Structure prediction request, 163 residues.
Amino acid sequence: MRQLKTKPAAFAAAAAVLVLDQLTKLAMRHILLDGVPRDILGSVVRVTLRYNTGAAFSLGWGGPVILSVFTVLASVFLVRYMLKIEGRKKVLWLGVVLGGAVGNLTDRLIMGKVTDFIDIGSTGWRWPTFNVADIAICIGGIAVFFLFKGSKRLEVPTKENQT
Prediction:
């Protein structure tokens, strides 16, 4: 019975990440001027509105169309995989990753670019600006990695292991 509740909870986690991501991006687009930083914790943590037409951390490959197609395919894979696997924590963290992917995809489909605003760094060095969806993808991906790390791998049938 517990497993039956896991799948809806994973999709609820995805929806929660998507909503939080889109609300924070909307707020930052209304509050901030493009490229003008506002300090939160001194100059170490600040918010700076930036738009990213590239991949993660503003890597400039592919453009919005290719990245959107890739994200749609990755999201379909995540949903199919979430429906097939067992394990409450695995499915929930995959839902978090899905929510982040769909959050950035939403920006690309609506605006052709992703809204970034979290700006961290000091003494002349700054991490590339990011958003809530990026946090969900990174933390969810790390959690999934460690949860799957000890799992058995699927064996591909060969003549040797079929007997």
Summary: Strands lie at 38-41, 45-52, 114-122, 125-126.
